[in-house]
């Protein structure tokens, strides 16, 4: 049985779980509803614990968003206090006072066997093309996005990222794309700014349609939360429990990291908890936080005609490792001793200081990028992609 044709507008409603009653139909892609005790509210609830104007549900940038209106007892979303406006996704539970509501939509259900095939072999292009055909057949614009991405067409990420767009533009959320979907996501500081709350960002990302096949998630937890070394173990475990409780947790996730400090190795590097491993078996045994004493680069690709010298297999990069271009289409990674790089004046080099791994661009600023960003100084995290323009691409890995 084929799903109903996608019209571009998804109908949404709220199921009343407590008190019981008819479902609350939301207007198609517009308007707002205010809940509370006041007769002036869109929906009035006879509950003395509620404020006159308790919370509001409004349409914004393609999503229904819920926000508390300064109520005394607060509003909860999926059991957690609502501190700022949050986008709602199918199955979300909204609670205030004695009121219990469940958010529902009529978004067509995809073929579970096809989704499973993509999840098992995300690099197999044939499955993606079948998925795109199915989506386009019912008029779903997500199918066109996959097709345009495959053909190298320009993609508009804004409507698909919705509430995360501002964080994406600010550099707080970095994304590596695959067929228009999020393949890898990193949440980090940007220009000295700390995301106000990383948990809603992750929850929203995993609920987005383009986040369903996420394979790598990196969260720079120590810097985002300003944690001390003593606090890190507890907070990493708490972060894992948070992830394990999320209803939308992609089975494709195979890499999870909560950042690292460059220091002498310590015993007992933290790995995924049993709770999280049960939800995502691919993560079982994966280290999520560790103290390391170096980084290394894995070669992703080298531009045709460029020779790569000075990097062999698992070579560990230290604070004296430098990267430079040769005069004959050669790309070198060099460590002292060796004076050839001096001819370049001030080449790019790695710095392992202050408990962090950094990359200093030097005069190669603009020629070296991390995750397609241009900067003079980069804070490195596991799985970052180092791109030497017209040279090659490398994956950053930590070394215990």
Write the layout of secondary structure elements.
Layout: E1 12-18, E2 24-25, E3 32-36, E4 43-44, E5 55-60, E6 63-68, E7 76-77, E8 80-81, E9 86-87, E10 93-96, E11 99-105, H1 112-120, H2 125-137, H3 141-150, H4 158-161, H5 165-170, E12 173-178, E13 181-187, H6 198-207, E14 216-219, H7 221-225, H8 232-245, E15 255-257, E16 260-262, E17 270-271, H9 274-279, E18 287-292, E19 294-302, E20 307-309, E21 321-325, E22 330-335, E23 348-353, E24 356-360, E25 368-370, E26 377-379, E27 385-388, E28 392-399
Parallel strand pairs: 3-4, 13-14, 14-15, 16-18, 20-22
Antiparallel strand pairs: 1-2, 1-11, 3-5, 5-6, 6-9, 7-8, 7-10, 10-11, 12-13, 17-18, 19-28, 21-22, 21-23, 23-24, 24-26, 25-27, 27-28
Helix pairs in contact: 1-2, 2-3
What does this molecule look like?
The protein is built from 9 helices and 28 strands. α1 packs antiparallel against α2. The protein is globular. With 400 residues, the protein is of the alpha+beta class. Helix content is 19%, strand content 32%. Residues 1-8 and 336-345 have low confidence and may be disordered.
Q: What is the average per-residue confidence, as pLDDT, rounded to a whole number?
A: 82
> In what range is the share of β-strand residues?
25-35%
**Number of strand segments:** 28
Unreliable spans: 1-8, 336-345
Number of helices: 9
| Largest sheet properties | 6 strands, antiparallel
The helix content is 10-25%
Radius of gyration: 24 Å
State the shape.
Answer: globular
* Termini separation: 52 Å
* Order of adjacent strands in the largest pleated sheet: 2-1-11-10-7-8
Structural class: alpha+beta
């Amino acid at each position: 049985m084929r799903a109903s044709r996608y019209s571009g507008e998804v109908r949404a409603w709220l199921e009343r779980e407590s008190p019981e009653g008819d479902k609350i139909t939301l207007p198609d892609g517009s308007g707002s509803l205010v809940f509370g005790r006041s007769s002036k509210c869109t929906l009035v609830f006879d509950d003395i614990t509620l404020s006159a104007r308790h919370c509001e549900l409004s349409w914004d940038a393609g999503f229904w968003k819920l926000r508390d209106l300064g109520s005394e007892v607060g509003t909860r979303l999926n059991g957690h206090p609502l501190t700022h406006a949050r986008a709602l996704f199918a199955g979300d539970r909204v609670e205030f006072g004695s009121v219990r509501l469940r958010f529902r939509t009529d978004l067509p259900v995809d073929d579970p066997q096809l989704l499973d095939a993509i999840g098992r072999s995300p690099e197999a292009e044939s499955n993606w093309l079948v998925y795109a055909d199915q989506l386009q057949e019912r008029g779903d614009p997500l199918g066109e996005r996959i097709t345009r991405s495959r053909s190298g067409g320009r993609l508009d990420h804004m409507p698909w990222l919705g509430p995360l767009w501002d964080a994406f533009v600010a550099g707080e959320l970095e994304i590596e794309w695959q067929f228009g979907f999020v393949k890898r996501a990193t949440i980090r500081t940007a220009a000295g700014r700390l995301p106000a709350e990383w948990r809603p960002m992750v929850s929203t990302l995993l609920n987005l349609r383009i986040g369903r096949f996420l394979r790598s998630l990196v969260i720079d937890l120590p810097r985002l939360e300003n944690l001390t070394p003593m606090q890190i173990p507890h907070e990493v475990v708490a972060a894992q429990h948070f992830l394990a409780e999320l209803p939308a947790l992609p089975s494709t996730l195979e890499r999870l990291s909560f950042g690292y400090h460059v220091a002498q190795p310590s015993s007992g590097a933290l790995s995924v908890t049993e709770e999280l491993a049960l939800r995502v078996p691919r993560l079982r045994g994966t280290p999520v936080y560790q103290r390391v004493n170096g980084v290394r680069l894995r070669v992703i690709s080298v531009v045709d005609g460029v020779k790569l010298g000075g990097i062999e297999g698992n070579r560990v990069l230290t604070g004296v490792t430098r990267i430079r271009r040769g005069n004959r289409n050669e790309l070198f990674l060099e460590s002292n001793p060796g004076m050839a790089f001096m001819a370049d004046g001030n080449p790019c080099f790695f710095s392992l200081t202050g408990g962090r791994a950094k990359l200093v661009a030097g005069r190669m600023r603009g020629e070296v990028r991390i995750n397609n960003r241009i900067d003079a100084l980069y804070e490195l995290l596991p799985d970052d992609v180092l791109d030497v323009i017209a040279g090659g691409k490398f994956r950053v890995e930590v070394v215990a």
